[in-house]
Amino acid sequence: QVQLAESGGGLVQPGGSLRLSCAASGSSVSTNAMGWYRQAPGKQREMVAQITTGGSTDYADSVKGRFTISRDIAKNTLYLQMNSLKPEDTAVYYCTRAKYGTSWFRASDLDAWGQGTLVTVSS
Q: What is the pLDDT of residues 39-96, one digit of tens each?
């Protein structure tokens, strides 16, 4: 059974950067499409970024040009580099895995979630 463990969240000032990591165990980060979701206080979870098994990526419009999703297959780790952070990026960020064989996915296609890591953007 896959386990996803996020790290790297914290408090950062507007305009700053953070890199989130997601260490996967029980499954390779290259076998399934994977991604990052986030949930801000009082809001629904939303897709932030995703990467297919072939390495293609997609982003929410709100983070395009600022966030980059990547993976290190040797380390079996998924990353989210977040630059030019804004207060509206404040949320709990979750590492996610899609069901085997899924390419671009929705929340209903996910079969694993991490426990989440809190990112707070504030001065």
A: 999 999 999 999 999 999 999 999 999 999 999 999 999 999 999 999 999 999 999 9
Residue 2 class from Cβ within 10 Å (0-12 exposed, 13-18 middle, 19+ buried)? middle
Phi, psi of 26 (to 5 degrees): 90, -5
Closest CA to 114 of 17, 29, 41: 29
What 3-state DSSP class applies to 89?
helix
Q: Kindly give the pairing relationship between strand 77-82 and strand 18-25.
A: antiparallel
Report whether 48 contacts 60 (CB < 8 A): yes
Helix, strand, coil proportions of the chain in percent (round to 5)? 5, 50, 45
